[in-house]
Amino acid sequence: VTVSSGIPNLPEYVVVGMLDDVQTDHYDSITGRAEPRQEWRKKVKAEHPEDWEGQTQIAAGIHQNFKATIEILKQRFNQTGAGVHIFQLMYGCEWDDETEERNGFHQWGYDGEDFISFKLKEEIYVAAKREAEVSARRWNQDRAEIEQQKNYYQTCIKWLKKYLDYGRSSLMRTEPPPLSVPSSRKEPSSPVTCVATGFYPGGATLSWRRGEEELHEEVEPGEILPNPDGTFQMSAALDLSSVPPEDWSSYKCVFQLSGGQEVPTSLDKNPSITTAIVGVGVAVLVLVLGAIAGFIMYRQKKGESWR
What we know:
It comes from Tetraodon nigroviridis (Spotted green pufferfish). The chain has helices at residues 39-47, 49-76, 133-140, 143-171; strands spanning 2-5, 13-19, 22-28, 34-36, 85-95, 102-110, 113-119, 124-127, 192-199, 204-210, 213-214, 219-221, 225-226, 232-238, 251-257, 262-266, 275-279.
């Protein structure tokens, strides 16, 4: 959940729901409505319309609360004038379907830094900034609020499992991805880029190795980016400007999905071959970790509680 002030041409308020690495829901202050971002999520909406309407109402209510919170925090931090300010909340639950271990989290941030968080196992609010200590003390004295937080996580786990049932065919699909196409090397000093595309889920690593040694200083890793079809892509560039072509064969690009097997691709000796292509099959998702139920029923604290 993000609310901002002083940023033109962007929605003032945005809510995004995530299940593992997949966006499931979206709400912003321009459209004023919650929208499903997955086909299976649309089915949940159709079969549970009361839940969907409740989510939209909650999202709209938190918007006004967060706008007021920014003004309160500006006073605490002695910030004057308009300026750009951002207040964020990330909350949800985690479930390991092998060990049955469960956890939950509520984390608030202000202007890009941690502000306050709720530790479920300790049942305590922890201030990350001096300016948050007054709120942490007040909330820790409110046992009814803490109990409500604990009850929320039980609801969150219930909906997390429901989402997994609806989206199982999509989330655990094993369709092979398309291969990427090599690009040309502009100059001999240009880096060699390894590209992996079409993999799913998004948790993955792409690295360069010389023999069995993983390289770091010579490598410029890229971010994991979404493809239009819901799969992901990433790249890693290797600087070989000081390596003679006859030694290229000792280098390899290694792709690995979280918890999956490594997929290595050796670099060709021919210096005209400038891109190592990794075609990656999609591994079966074994553990369900880090799921964020972004639109679960949750009673946001009243604005005056930040004072």
